């Protein structure tokens, strides 16, 4: 025991019982904030996690959901046991709620009350609706501050879709503007501590408390560029225990349903939801079920790199999948044919961004071109209306036309893509994106030099997109400006400047 810890323990033991009690009451129990997610017409998920070193194995937590911010009209209430085996997280699932309504919620435990969060249910399946949605991804703590979250929390949004890289597993360079606590993540306790650090940020807490979120993960919630069961270095031994630890900590810290709780190294994540008659939102998982990247540096490992088609015939192998066979089939059979919009919330850039002389990046959809063409051919064959692919991962605002054949300049545009830039993670050099655009005319916009998020307003006639960017990423109070504006008209695939 370190001297300071020993002194603290000694003081605690020596103190009379009422002082010990007072000390426990002072410890903040809701230091990680509150969150909600997965809105359905009649229910949703409320989340919090209790904090403190002195928590008993089980703590009863009361939750309340009200029609008003003052909690004078209670819509639902209940109690859940926060359990140390799940990091004292709470995942409450109120049901029987009214569709298309805003609610306020809070938790109580150990004599303390949480802050109040705001959330809402989805519109009824047959109701006319509009939607205000933001996408965000890649919030690397030690790369900058969260002015983007601060700004997002002030927007009047119905829904936030977080598209991956909620945490990063790396240790920090001592020169970083703010530091990760601890080193490279390998154990459950290390992953938990990293989530607790990220969730301590007040701007991120405000964004979670503002509206419900949809969650999908990418690689850094586990380790860089892992692929299914393949670790990304030959040194990283067995992937299963790492995935089990990382997936458990992910579930513990997100507003996910109890039915999604991981079993060992597997966690059910992909799913879909309807937003009235307006949109179907498909949430994809491009990490857990994928085949390994083509032509890795070492056998049996994963990891993205640039490879030329001529050097890597496996790139075009039609049996390789980014979603896995079961999820591909589930997506192909689940498009909505009677709503104007099908939004695809997934992790990475779908449009081709590679160049013949420089090669293709094997970790993204460019590394799984046959699977990409299968998906887009289904969209064409079934005449799926309003497909808009939303993504992250590449730390750049990218707007693109999606085609089944990117080599054919006259191939029809089948869908639209908006890939949002990172909240804080560094982008790659802009000149690389300028070259990618020159060789890929379907890329209408590509800016890696700014951090931010993208916000969308949808109705039955049009989707309007605003690409937002932080002025000063090292300033938590920075202003945010509009980098560009696009629109997609219902019934006419492809984005245009607005
Ligand atoms: Fe990232
Ligand atoms: Ca990523």
What does this structure look like?
Helix 4 (188-198) packs parallel to helix 6. This protein folds into 2 domains: 18-120, Immunoglobulin-like (Sandwich), CATH 2.60.40.380; 131-497, 4-Layer Sandwich (Purple Acid Phosphatase, chain A, domain 2). A hairpin with a 3-residue loop joins strand 12 and strand 13 (279-283). The longest helix is centred in the middle third of the chain and has 14 residues, at 239-252. By secondary structure, the chain is an alpha+beta fold. The strands form 5 sheets. The chain has a 7-stranded mixed beta sheet with strand order 11-10-9-21-22-23-24. The radius of gyration is 23 Å and the shape is globular. 49% of the residues are buried. Helices cover 19% and strands 26% of the residues. The site of calcium ion has 6 residues, from loops.
What is the arithmetic mean of pLDDT?
94
> Number of DSSP helices?
9
Inertia-based shape: globular
Termini Cα gap: 62 Å
Helix content: 10-25%
- CATH 4th-level superfamily of the largest domain: Alkaline phosphatase D (PhoD)
The CATH topology of the largest domain turns out to be Purple Acid Phosphatase, chain A, domain 2
Question: Under the CATH scheme, which architecture of the largest domain would be assigned?
Answer: 4-Layer Sandwich
Q: How large, in whole angstroms, is the Cα Rg? A: 23 Å
Strand order of the largest sheet: 11-10-9-21-22-23-24
Strand content: 25-35%
What structural class is derived from the secondary structure elements?
Answer: alpha+beta
Which residue ranges are poorly predicted, with pLDDT under 50 across at least 5 consecutive positions?
1-20
- CATH class wording of the largest domain: Alpha Beta
- The domain count comes to 2
Q: Characterize the quaternary organization of these chains.
A: single chain
